[in-house]
Amino acid sequence: MLFPETILTQEIDLPILREKGIRLSLRRLDMVHPMVSGNKFFKLKYNIAEAKKQGKNTLLTFGGAFSNHIHAVAAAGKILGFRTIGVIRGEETFPLNPTLRFATEAGMRLHYVDRESYRIKTQETFLESLKQQFVEFFLIPEGGTNAFAISGTKEILLAEDEHFSHIAVAIGTGGTFAGIAGSLFSHQTLLGFSSLKWLSIQNEINQLLELHQIQPRGAVRILDQYHFGGYAKHKPELLDFMLDFFAQTGIPLDPVYTGKMMFGILDQVKKGAFAPGSNILAMHTGGLQGILGFNERFGTKLPYTSLRM
Question: What dotted CATH number matches 9-34+153-298?
Answer without folding.
Answer: 3.40.50.1100
